[in-house]
Fold each of these.
Amino acid sequence: MKLRIAHSLTRLAGGPAYRTDIVIRHLDPDRFEARLYYGSTSAWDPESHDEIVRTAPYRCVHIPAMQRELRPLRDAVALAAFAREFRDFAPQIVHTHESKDAVLARVAAHACGVPVVLRHYHGFIYGRGYFGRRSSLMTPVFLGIERALNRGSDAIVNISEGLNRQAVEEYRLAPADRTFVLNNAFDLEEYLSLPRDPGLRVSWGVPLRSRLFVMVANFQKPKNHLGGLRAFARFVHLHPEPEAHLALAGQGPLEEEIRLLAGELGIAGRVHFLGHRKDVARVLSGCDVFLMSSTSEGTPGALVEALAARVPAACTAVGGIPDITAGDERAALAPPWEDGQLCAAMERAVFSPPDMGAVSRAIAVEYGAPHVARRLMEFYESLWAARRGR
């Protein structure tokens, strides 16, 4: 008998959507039947769901009323839709991935008597700066909801050892014996064999003989593009030759704020907005150093891909980043919110990078999709066996 697995995502945009799609594609179809339930994107989200739905070898079900924003009436409609779908599919396991769907799908799963329910954290929204000025009000509310729902869930899944410790010790989301660490899955073949193409920068208006940093992230507050710009401005001042430039691959509501700060710092001519890119591998092939200034992260896919592509990296040590980089072994790290120290990490990445060939090989072993999917299949089957044995 095949195990029926229902995955849910608030919307098909960003890292969790791509990572979930990849791991579902690598599940053994002789042992598992999977469906993916997803909601609607926001106005500025990259419209990635068409590509995933069009090519998925499993069934995708759109829940139009579900979206990331709090909308009580729409949320009630989405909850009813989940209940109808679960009664039809009768999954043995419901596996939720983001905040809104984790509430709606788990409530529906319990109402429909689904035997095994999982909460998968791709990162945490409870840290400083995530909700801006509303942080002190919203954080306890969301934590309280998550803790209550987790008590009725069979396990929570975290994407790194560091985030697992944070979930247990800092946020008290579940006891350690009900957690499971599963690295995010990546299809890395294209990145592992990626040839360098420094001439690509010319098409972006970047001089050929320059030092090009790149950030790959949507323009959202936790990505802290403003801190990245300030660190980059310091680097430009300290190292005028060769001329340094910064490419920003992404989009989002903070774009105007980022452009304004670049002007205030006097680096507007050095900062290049590439927009949302689906050809991230090609973008990386044209750049010299990867920069990540986030204040909150799970397992950032852009960093895994950059290291697989042998691009030296300078990053903030938040979330699962130190697990990916094995501390300072695979990338130069700096504490969050410290622009000066991030600039120093950029210098280390430029002037004393690690052996990027060895880094690329290690990343392939730890985050390659076949290996990750194998662990997840074993986890599903152990949960189902334990449930049947009760």
Amino acid sequence: MGYRTAPDGWWQEFVRAVPARTGKLAVTRLDGSPHVAPVWVDLDGDDIVFMTSAATIKGKSILRDGRVALCFDDERPPFAFLAVTGLASVSTDPDELLHWGTRIGGRYMGADRADEYGRRNAVPPEMVVRVRVTDVVAKVDVAGY
């Protein structure tokens, strides 16, 4: 009761919101158990882009099985959330690492620190992860105000 489906194009605006929302990435561990971790994200068209190390649980899972889910929420009344599922691909191209590291760093830490975060994150074993979204569930005005 009180739930409304989000309008077309809403989810992209929700992800791009300022201040930037942290995505919660869900993947599966090698034994099949779930793993959730926060990620800083940006959009490239309708693709969600983030970075992670190939040596993390997130990275290992994405390399093994590209299926992922991400959740974003607005914790302020009347509340809203977005859950997406998709297929992830990765790149370790140095130019892409620097580009996305800088762009994402700037979203979360501010333009004055973007280059610092870009350089810090543009090194192996970091990888750029691009999620092609295949399903979206979004609700606005959860509290029914």
Amino acid sequence: MDKLIIDGGVRLKGSVEVSGAKNAALPILAATLLADEKSVIKNVPTSLLDVITMVKIIRYLGAKVEVQGNTITVEPKGYKGCTAPYKFVSTMRASICLLGPLLGKQKYAEVSFPGGCVIGPRPVDLHLKGIKALGAKVKIYGGYIIADGRNLRGSHVYLGGHFGSSVLATANVMMAATLTKGRTIIENAACEPEVVDLAHFLKQMGAKIEGESTHKIEIEGVKKLAGAEHMLIADRIETGTYMIGAAITDGDIVIKKANPNHCIALIDKLREAGVSITFGKNEIHVRKTRSLKPVDVTTLPYPGFPTDMQAQFMSLMCVTKGISVITEKIYPERFMHLSELNRMGANIILEGPTAIVKGVKNLSGAPLMASDLRASAALVLAGLAGKGKSEVLRVYHLDRGYEDMEKKLSRLGAKIWREKE
């Protein structure tokens, strides 16, 4: 396994390009299986482990996949597979999004219960509720979700969950419904940019979808879908991570190929903290021009503050004078990074789903153990701000969601490199 070595205390300066959105790439790649012809997906972060895994699954199912640079071409014609096996799915939760396309196209699916990051319980109940509402017969056997979709029909589906709407459950129902006779209405649908991007791709394929970007999506089933060419949106979480990178290092960076409209909640909180943020054409200029002040944050479904930025924002508050309160309402147990930050000298107390952060003057470098994808990014950011050297272990988590992170940070002046553990 690899580790990252960071010699902290260097101010980030320069420009960085963000990659295509991983969380848009995975369901869109799965959606190519709905078509009768090949699709071409551009701006794909093809070096990410999650994308590599999705390509392996699609090939396992029998479709032809060609990867050239950041473009993936999928030729689904003639694929017969209906099973997404444990050996692939166990490493990536987003592989659950194959359930909808397989049901819609093949009318049958066997998908292993998903794995991925350890950030607390993330049940698949809304996925099952959604496809059952469409008429699928579902059973759980041997660690697999087995769904028979021969009697699918358009239906009224409510996807409200204990912690709000579900992005991937919305994606699954929407994909299955595109080839299901009748009209499907998804109430309390997720409206994240990644869901909207998926809807745009499906519409290019010939799907009839209305209401994407709202909490009510309507789909009129069609008999078949064609292939399409699509450019993925920018990764808003990578964008946000580099924004915090500028703030936490007293930096001055321009983030290119970014969409600020997808980062409004984070931008609002960073400005409230005192960070200077301005916009150009497809770019965001982030500078720390004065001392920061503490800000309280509560994670919420989009357009609220994203749970995927909670850990990174906590790293920033660790070195911001005063007391901030960070409440996690999406995954209440998503605080694995807290103990590692405290080992660097941070002062954080956890009370249920709320972290109380008392800012300290400096963090100190330390050996750090990454527990999940976004926690890994938070530890890297803390290492950049810390005094002395830090080692971030288990960076395979980071490689699931950030393309060439150490190289991009190095070009901004960071002293960071990769070694074998």
